[in-house]
Amino acid sequence: MKAMSALSSTALLTAVSFFSQGVGFVYRVLLSRLVGSEVMGLYQLVMPAFSVLLSLTAVGFTAACSNLSARYLATGDQPGAGQVVRQCVLGFLGAFLVVAALAAPLSDAISVHLLGDARAQLGLLLLLPCVLLTGLENIHKHFFYGAGAVRGPAFTEICEQLIRSGAVLGLLWRFLPQSPERAVGLIVCGMILCEVFSALTLTLLYRRALGRRPAGQGKAQRAIIRRRVWGIALPIGATALLGNLMGAWTAVLIPQRLVHSGQEVSAAMSAFGVLCGMTLPLLNLPTAFISAMGLVLLPKLAQAAATGNKALIHHRISKALTVTAFLILPASALLSVLSPPLARLLFREPAAGAFAAPLALCVALSAFETVLAVCLNGLGKQTVTARNGLLCGAVQLFLTWQRMGSPGVGLRGYVEALLFSTLLGLWLNWRSLSKAAGLKPRLFQWLVAPGLAALLSALCVRLLFPILTGAGMGPGAGCIACLAFGAVLYFCALTAQGVLTGA
Fold this sequence. Notes:
Elements: H1 6-57, H2 59-74, H3 78-103, H4 107-114, H5 121-147, H6 151-175, H7 180-211, H8 222-260, H9 265-283, H10 288-307, H11 310-347, H12 356-378, H13 382-404, H14 411-437, H15 443-470, H16 475-497
């Protein structure tokens, strides 16, 4: 088991993230064409339940595994690291058995009274084996992250995306047409097949790397490790659970409030599927690098904080925000103009791409909010990050309920709630980070220069696209030409402002 350097890890994880995002987007395009917007809406209704189930069972133990295995391996205590993985697996299995014993018999009540649609029951039941396999996979994956050995998880991630796409699309192609409930069941069955591969592969890689060593030997005793595992797992799991519950509740509210405002159930579910299953995934494509950067940035900030090196802390935070601004702002600006024709072309859905401009702004602000949260966690301010996230989730939930229930507002109410809560989260995280690190904003480098260049690029592309399509160029070729032109214009505008050499 060979650890990689920070630069190599970042590069590899970023490449894998972009690949997975690309494959996942193509998969979503084909999926939406096969099943339609109503099934996509029902699928988007079921998936928040998946996040809640993982929060109840696995999230805390994956964090504990990454944290403690890194600590024990750093001191050369490999048996102790093996005991950490063992205790995490045992804790996860115990939590899963309790949750499954409650969720299975109550699946009908959960689907009707909590999710708001009885057709979600089959998907909810099939999610249970998927949660079991995903939890085992994630515990072993985070052991490798803690050890700094990312090649195995990266290989598994690539294969996982390909297998999931092939399995789900293959099952749908073979067995469609089906009712919406059974179509969602087929999608979850394809996910289970993918997770079987991932769980087995990572478990075998772990056994090869460390598992043959006696887990009961080492400096740390079993009871001490168990207490440390639960000491990390419980607060992190509880925070993740509260956040995912609010996110799930918001997802459930969207179709319910659309029905409340006068839409039919099938139309409301279709509108929900178009927004969350088509438009938002397209706009979120540029954010693929954020998670990879966060995995490397967090421990680097923690190291700088441990040595009290404030100059290094400021330098790394500034670099992270600069990279985020230079990549996210132009991508979001261009997609705010081009995502409506792109979404309609890819998904063959006339309503796809609606609310593109405000949603693109939400995506850009959310990227900054996420980077600031990673920086806070790297400085040991996890409690502050959790508090800010929960507050923003509660605000978004309340505003979604209030605005979408008003006649004539519809999905615009959700977009308004998302934008306001994202702005609130960005402000709260920045205020907390500036206090914790003593950091002053570099507005020209982080916002003004890339923002003006992105705005210029988007305005020119908005004028160029109808000219190209009016001259006979197809929408796909027109979007590609506009993206290339916009990227070159953005680079030239940044160069004219003299910020590239200073970034």
